[in-house]
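Lecture notes, part 5. Sequence design as translation. It can be helpful to think of inverse folding as translation between two languages: the language of shapes and the language of residues. The source text, in structure tokens, appears below.
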């Protein structure tokens, strides 16, 4: 990416009038918000409200779905990631993503964590250091350091998800997007991933899509509530979950609609 412009209001990532359109249906409609440095924003809302589409639009993953059109701007350090000449591969290096189900490759733990670095042709010494650091930041190092050559497929589901987080972290993104990263995990594994997210939010920007209001309460600094493709409310977690202003938010957090 070319030299960035100053970030608006000190935010690492900002969204301005973002809409995502599929044929004649608006999946997202005129969404604007900022993501400050060192924060964790939970994106919540009923099924079909546009949460996943929203988070995928933040690093141009929407381009991988035919028929979707993006309107508006997503600014990373002040530069529109959808601007002419911006390389989406570099965008996804700066704005990483972890998906709902762990997607480890049939190779060693080390090579899974190093995957993005290999694509970038990093020097071997740099790869070793980056993998170690990434596994530590993802909270997995102590569990795998004695056998980095073991198959990643032999890890538990929770370990695999933290390995996916480590793989994303190895290329040193400034933003990490997480799309329901614990929905397929048991409670103990969920707790470990949540602890990892909390630690990372002290270093970088995290955007977490979750269907679980309790998880949002446990790990996030801020909550954004989406409904029918619209941003209904955004604020500090306690404020949104305990004193929502919009009745639709109140209905959602009290479980009165899906």
């Amino acid at each position: 990416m070319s030299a960035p412009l100053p970030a608006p209001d000190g935010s690492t990532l900002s969204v301005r009038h973002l809409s995502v359109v599929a044929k004649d249906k608006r999946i997202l409609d005129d969404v604007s918000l900022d993501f400050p440095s060192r924060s964790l924003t939970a994106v919540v809302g009923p099924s079909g409200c546009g949460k996943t589409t929203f988070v995928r639009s933040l690093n141009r993953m929407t381009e991988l779905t035919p028929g979707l059109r993006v309107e508006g701007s997503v600014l990373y350090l002040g530069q529109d990631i959808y601007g002419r000449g911006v390389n989406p591969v570099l965008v996804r290096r700066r704005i990483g993503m972890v998906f709902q189900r762990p997607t480890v490759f049939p190779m060693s733990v080390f090579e899974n964590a190093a995957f993005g670095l290999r694509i970038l042709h990093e020097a071997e010494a740099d790869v070793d250091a980056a993998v170690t650091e990434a596994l530590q930041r993802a909270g997995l190092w102590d569990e795998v350091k004695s056998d980095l050559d073991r198959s990643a497929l032999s890890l538990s589901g929770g370990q695999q998800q933290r390995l996916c987080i480590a793989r994303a972290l190895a290329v040193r993104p400034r933003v990490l997007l997480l799309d329901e990263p614990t929905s397929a995990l048991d409670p103990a594994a969920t707790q470990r991933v949540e602890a990892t997210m909390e630690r990372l939010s002290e270093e970088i920007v995290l955007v977490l899509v979750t269907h679980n209001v309790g998880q949002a309460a446990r790990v996030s600094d801020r909550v954004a509530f989406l409904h029918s493709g619209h941003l209904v409310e955004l604020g500090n977690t306690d404020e949104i979950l305990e004193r929502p202003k919009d009745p639709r938010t109140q209905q959602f957090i009290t479980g009165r609609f899906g």
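The translated text above is only one of many valid answers, since several sequences can fold into similar shapes. The longest strand covers residues 11-22.
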